[in-house]
Amino acid sequence: MNDGLSTIEQQITSDYKYGFTSNLEADQAPKGLNEDIIRFISGRKNEPEWMLEWRLKAYRYWLKMEVPDWANIKYPAIDFQDIIYYSAPKQSKKLNSLDEIDPELRRTFEKLGISLDEQKRLSGVAVDAVIDSVSVATTFREQLGELGIIFCSISEAIQEHPELIKKYLGSVVPMTDNFYSALNAAVFTDGSFCYIPKGVRCPMELSTYFRINAENTGQFERTLIVAEDSSYVSYLEGCTAPMRDENQLHAAVVELIAMDHAEIKYSTVQNWYPGDKEGKGGIYNFVTKRGICAGVHSKISWTQVETGSAVTWKYPSCILKGDYSTGEFYSVAVTNHHQQADTGTKMIHLGKNTRSRIVSKGISAGVSHNSYRGLVSVAKNASNARNFSQCDSLLLGDRCGAHTFPYIEVKNNTAQVEHEATTSKIGEDQIFYCNQRGIDTETAVALIVNGFAKEVMNQLPMEFAVEAQKLLAITLEGSVG
Amino acid sequence: MSTINIIKDRARQLGADQLDALQPIRTAALASFDKLGVPAVKHEEWKYTRVSQLFNQAYQIGADTATSDLNWQAFRLPEFETANELVFINGVYNAAASTVRSAGLVVLPLQDAAQGEYASIVSKHLGHSAQYLNDGINALNTSFLVGSVFIGVNRSTEIEHPIYIYNINDGRKENVFAQPRTLVHVAENAGVVLVETYGSIGSADHFTNQVVEVVVEQDARIEYYKIQNDSARSSQVSTTHFRQVGKSYVHAVTISLNGAMVRNNLNMVMEAEYCESNMYGLYFTSDSCHIDNHTIVDNVKPHCLSNEFYKGILDGSSTGVFNGKIFVRQDAQKINAFQSNKNILLSDTASVYTKPQLEIFADDVKCSHGCTIGRLDEEGLFYLRSRGITEAIARSLLLHSFAIDILEQVKPDAIRAYIDQLISERLGS
Fold first, then answer.
1. Is residue A481 in some structural domain?
2. Where in the sequence is the domain holding A396, given as residue range(s)?
């Protein structure tokens, strides 16, 4: 296995490819958190009074909460007073076209390979690009507008669609839900809002690219997607962050609401900076993602490819409230070096004849730890609920860990719940089989890992599938078990 | 004074009365109980089992050992005439009622074993379970150690007849809190079969907090059967902790058919290479019975094999909890560990909480777990009904066949027939 060792070394020494900083002048709030900071954020965004009240209420609640410690992850305590809660790229006037964007910012996007105009021209994807905390450009808005689809930054939505925001914001993830959702509710600076009216099938994939940019800046995104009766939307979220020594916190909240016969597909490729090979630096990704299938025959599908972040801690969940609703969760989580991931899902079956499916693939390498933690809960009145869960772990190297914590709670006898999980390494016989046929070990591993993750990769929209496969290859380059 | 304080006082009093070799262990355990307390719902391992509510009433603690009029014989297992029988009344070993027949089998009061030729074994292994069960309940048992027993199986001895252990509570007058404690040592190349059962007399509430620790040496074999078919007023926390210190074989079967709140902790610590252990369980509950099985398999050394298979049938408003943990330590390569939990819900009000958990730190392993929850197979029922079998019989046939996987793992014929009889009675067939 000498081959294996050297390739692991190669992998360990491979640097984070997206680590660069763009020099944007940032309009920042002072470090720390208190009511004045929240007023500052709210004021900067010209928010109405009710929004400020909402934030303050969340903040006061947050003060009473304790930092949760139940997850299978270890990190130094976060000093919440040492974070800058507001940082906006300097930009005073509203933009009418892409040409008005700060050229420096444009170059940043180009380095990441997501040039706005190119995206616009070639792929037909509407991009709401978020640098730090303020949305700088929204494309295809008009085209979507014709269909009645609202796709804008959440700050704009607060100004222009207060009735929708008042109705839905915090309805799936209440501010009191957990420590980080309360913090997010108090200080969120921007994010996306998407509203699909009745009977409309969104003609294009909606995507947002998140970037953490200014130093010492925590990002607190807030995404809200509402799909009215018989509508469909596919939303993509992708992240790459520049290299930093200091740990950075990312505590986002995503809320999805699907009405009767509506379908929301939410895909994520997460590649925040994972820290260096000693485990120094890297992003803390503590996200609360939850969707509610509020109507009958509604469907929410989460797909995630998690390759980055020093610590990932998130559980995209589905509340299956409507009868005949469906929840899906497909996940590939890859950890290397000192990365830690504690991720999974919750499927809460409340309505009758609800179905859910969980496919989780964990790949650990280096000295990393990868945990699947999931809950399948069937309530008393959720007759004929059906769940199938599968969580497999692949270990590459003998210093890493794979953990599985599935919680299954069933209170209805018509439910049918299945769970299965395996943990293994890549078999020597599999590698041998490939070698025999002239495939070198390196390629064989890539082949097997790709096959292992294929079930999830297949769920990704085309645009992301390519990027995700590249990411998988980069992250695991040469990690022969 | 609260029940917990009464219990603590009693433990302290024991410290003054019983100046034997176990005293330092009791004192340390009491300090640990003081610190940890009774686990609340917030305690992850006790999330579904509210053991603290058992401490809301007064108990008679320790023993009233007048057994002359106590009809414990009703609980005797089949073929008791030839078996070794050990009787615990209210958690205290009763030598007069017990019989030790087999040669090579040593039964001693624990405090005596702690001083004689077994002293090193006792000091090395007594209380090892506390490392895996870091909660007040385990410490509470260790803080008493009254009427505890040491069972030793001599080197290269195959104990011909099984050891039956009866845990009898006498609740004719008052509620009983019993804390039986046993340390079993199976020496090199020895083999033994142990069967434990529980019985309550009288209509008061019973709470048994039991700890059995078993040390299995090189080339030794042990079969362990636990039969829980106690009254609906009996609650228990029953810990069985196996420590395989040499290449050895453990076969454990837990059958839980009745009780109020029953919590079983079954631990397998595999500290040597090439150990094999099997853990099987069947819980068949009705009414408001609550059965919680927590198991831990800790693979410390390479080349071990463990098999775990638990099945549950839940009726009435009963609750079944299963939590299986498999740990594979970093140096424990080439491990095979399998775990499976299957449940059938028979009523609208029964519930199941299951958590099959894997924690793997080595890469060259094969570990799998699976669990299913569902109801009786409609197609199977229809098949039988279409052949003129009544629904009641069809259901009972299907359930019986579901249970048989576990039943087959009970190797002594007499015991298997006995359990089969209990299950058949429950199924009304």
1. no
2. 2-476
d(CA B59, CA B50): 18
Using CB atoms and an 8 Å cut-off, which of residues 291-350 of chain B contact chain A?
330, 333, 343, 345-350
Pick the residue from chain A with its C-alpha nearest to B318.
Answer: A411
Say whether pTM exceeds 0.80: yes
H or E element in which residue A53 lies: helix A49-63
Question: Are B333 and A398 inside 8 Å of each other by CB?
Answer: yes
The residue of B339, B351, B358, B367 whose CB has the most chain A CBs within 10 angstroms, and thus the best one to mutate to test that interface, is B358
Structure-token pair, residue A8: 């692991």
Closest among B268, B246, B263, B243 to B325, alpha carbons compared:
B268
Residue B305 CA to residue B288 CA, distance in Å, equals 36
Asked if B363 and A412 come within 8 Å (Cβ–Cβ), the reply is no
Distance from CA of A370 to the nearest CA of B (A): 10
- Residue-by-residue DSSP string for B238-303: EEEEEEE-SS-EEEEEEEEEE-SEEEEEEEEEE-STT-EEEEEEEEEE-TT-EEEEEEEEEE-SSS
Quick check: A410 and B346 CB within 8 A? no
CB pair distance less than 8 Å for B357 and A400: no
Is A158 a domain residue? yes
Q: Is B374 on the interface with A (CB under 8 A)?
A: yes
Which residues of chain B make contact with A421, given a CB cutoff of 8 A? 356, 358, 368-370
pLDDT tens-place values along chain A, 481 residues long: 344 434 444 444 455 555 555 555 556 777 888 888 888 888 888 889 999 999 999 999 999 998 888 888 888 888 888 887 876 655 444 445 555 555 655 555 555 555 455 444 334 445 555 554 444 445 566 778 888 988 888 888 898 999 999 999 999 998 888 999 999 999 888 788 899 999 999 887 776 544 444 444 457 888 999 999 999 999 888 655 444 545 678 888 999 999 999 999 998 888 777 777 777 778 888 889 999 999 999 999 999 988 878 888 899 999 999 999 999 999 999 888 888 999 999 999 999 999 999 999 998 888 888 999 999 999 999 999 999 999 899 888 888 888 989 999 999 989 999 998 888 888 888 889 999 999 988 778 878 888 888 888 888 877 667 667 766 766 665 555 4
* Residues of chain A positioned with their CB less than 8 A from the CB of B353: 407-410
Does the residue A204 lie in any domain?
A: yes
- Into how many domains does chain A fold? 1
